[in-house]
Structures are given as C-alpha cells and as structure tokens.
Amino acid sequence: MEVDVIKLRDRGQKMPRDTVKTIQPMHGFIELTDWHLKNATEDRIVKELVLKSAPDATSRPMATLTSPVQTRLKGNEMVYVGTESVGGVEYPQAWWCRLARRPPNR
C-alpha cells in the first residue's frame, strides 16, 4: 500500500503535536510481514510493518515497526503502534500513515 508516514515518537518519547505537524513525511510502500524467530531461548513468530521505497521484494526497508497494532483507522489515515530499534535499543513507536495521493494520470 502506497503511503506517507510520519513517526510520532523520537526514541520512545511522544513528540508534541506542533513538532509532528512540521515533519516531512516519508513516502513509500508499507508491507506487513512475519518471520519465524527460533533460537536457544525463543521460538515465536515476529510481525513487522516495513516501509520500503518501492513495492518490490528487493527494496531495502526505510523503517520497520515490530509487533505492529493498528489503533486507528479513519478515512484514508491509520495509526500503527509497535516498537522500533535504534542503535540496537528497542523503543515504543507510532506511525501515522496516510494513503498517498496519486496524480490523476499515474
């Protein structure tokens, strides 16, 4: 799904609404994926919401939200909450996603 994404937290801290309004959205394609994590201490399915620059399988992720839960859906907007890894540390994160507006002849 082609979307514009604005992150609502910085290293787990909720950003003020005035700050959020000034953020340039990341434009890309979101894809819900899951994979099997199995090692000596864990055996579970990990879900991720991945933002990519293109909808193909070879496109590298621009951002990843782990264990996403959709908390809001209104019109062409949705909010997902989960965690993101920054420098190997997990922080709470929320993504405000809006369906991308396409030019008429695209």
Q: What features would you describe in this structure?
A:
The protein has 106 residues and is mainly β. The protein has one domain (2-99). 6% of the residues lie in helices and 64% in strands. The chain has one helix and eight strands. The protein has one helix at residues 17-22; strands spanning 2-7, 9-10, 13-14, 26-38, 43-52, 61-74, 77-86, 89-99. Strands 1-4-5-6-7-8 form a six-stranded antiparallel barrel. The chain has a two-stranded antiparallel sheet with strand order 2-3. Strand 6 and strand 7 (77-86) form a beta hairpin. The model has no long low-confidence stretch (mean pLDDT 91).
What labels would you give this structure?
single chain; 106 residues; 6-stranded antiparallel β-barrel; two-stranded antiparallel ribbon; 1 helix; 64% strand; globular
Topology of this protein?
Blueprint: E1 2-7, E2 9-10, E3 13-14, H1 17-22, E4 26-38, E5 43-52, E6 61-74, E7 77-86, E8 89-99
Antiparallel strand pairs: 1-4, 1-8, 2-3, 4-5, 5-6, 6-7, 7-8
Main beta sheet: strand number and arrangement? Answer: 6 strands, antiparallel, barrel
> So how many helices?
1
Radius of gyration: 15 Å
Which spans of ≥5 residues are poorly predicted at pLDDT below 50?
none
Distance between the termini: 15 Å
Mean pLDDT: 91
| Helix and strand sequence | EEEHEEEEE
- In the sheet with the most strands, the strands line up as 1-4-5-6-7-8
Helix and strand composition category: mainly beta
In total, how many beta strands? Answer: 8
Helical content stands at: under 10%
Query: What proportion of the residues form beta strands (DSSP E)?
Result: over 45%
Shape: globular
Domain module count: 1
